[in-house]
């Protein structure tokens, strides 16, 4: 005599595992009056995998690789063949798990190999991706500057300076000059005011009483300088 599928409490007995479970834990089926199938979701998934493996074996003559059991909070890296915590994998929003397929060391090795194969190295990749020029254009621009920083004249500058608004490359600068322009937000007005400040508006301490000092400017008594 077949076992009853539903009881009065909205539960069903799975035909595979024999456990009584809520209807919500059974797969949706439009063929059943209750709208749920005869197998719970884990059993249904196992049946689907077995059916797929059988079809592939009969049609293509190859064996389907069994699903690897991985502890919760871990992930299997196909490159090094080890199971590691998910924190050892780079983030990847395109993946349903939120993490990349390969662990960080393997991911870095693959990235380095791709950059070497397509661009000849990481520097060429960085220059083209960030500034739209390659090492050849970099060296040509540096030669036009006489091989020195376009601002201070320091030798062997290695930083590409570009207009953050348009993206156009402006020149090759040393670390300090490139960082300085960035700190001043590429603003001619700020730079002009800084020049004015350095030329004569630096505040100094004046002794007005034993042990008491007052901050004063050497330009006190005349209008402050204005940028031209």
Automatic annotation (TrEMBL):
- Source organism, top-level taxon: Bacteria
What keywords are assigned to this protein? Endonuclease, Hydrolase, Nuclease
Q: Which Pfam families match?
A: Endonuclease_7 (PF02945)
Read off the InterPro entries from this record: Endonuclease_7, Endonuclease_7_sf, His-Me_finger_sf
An example Gene Ontology molecular-function term:
endonuclease activity
Protein name, UniProt field: Recombination endonuclease VII
Query: From which source organism is this entry?
Result: Micromonospora rifamycinica
């Amino acid at each position: 005599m077949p076992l009853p599928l539903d009881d009065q409490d909205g539960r069903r007995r799975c035909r595979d595992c024999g456990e009584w479970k809520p209807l919500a834990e059974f797969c949706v089926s439009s063929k059943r009056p209750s709208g749920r199938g005869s197998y719970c979701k884990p059993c249904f998934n196992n049946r689907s995998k077995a059916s797929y493996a059988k079809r592939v074996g009969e049609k293509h003559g190859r064996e389907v690789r069994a699903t690897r059991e991985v502890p919760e909070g871990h992930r299997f890296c196909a490159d090094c063949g080890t199971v590691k915590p998910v924190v050892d994998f780079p983030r990847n929003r395109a993946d349903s798990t939120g993490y990349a397929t390969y662990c960080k060391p393997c991911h870095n090795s693959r990235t380095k190999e791709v950059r070497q194969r397509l661009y000849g190295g990481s520097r060429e990749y960085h220059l083209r991706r960030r500034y739209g020029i390659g090492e050849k254009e970099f060296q040509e621009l540096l030669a036009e500057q006489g091989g020195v920083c376009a601002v201070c004249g320091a030798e062997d500058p290695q930083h590409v300076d570009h207009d953050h608004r348009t993206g156009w490359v402006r020149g090759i600068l040393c670390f300090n000059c490139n960082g300085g322009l960035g700190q001043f937000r590429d603003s001619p007005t700020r730079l002009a005011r800084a020049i004015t400040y350095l030329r004569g508006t630096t505040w100094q301490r004046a002794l007005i009483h034993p042990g008491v000092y007052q901050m004063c400017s050497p330009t006190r008594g005349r209008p402050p300088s204005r940028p031209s």
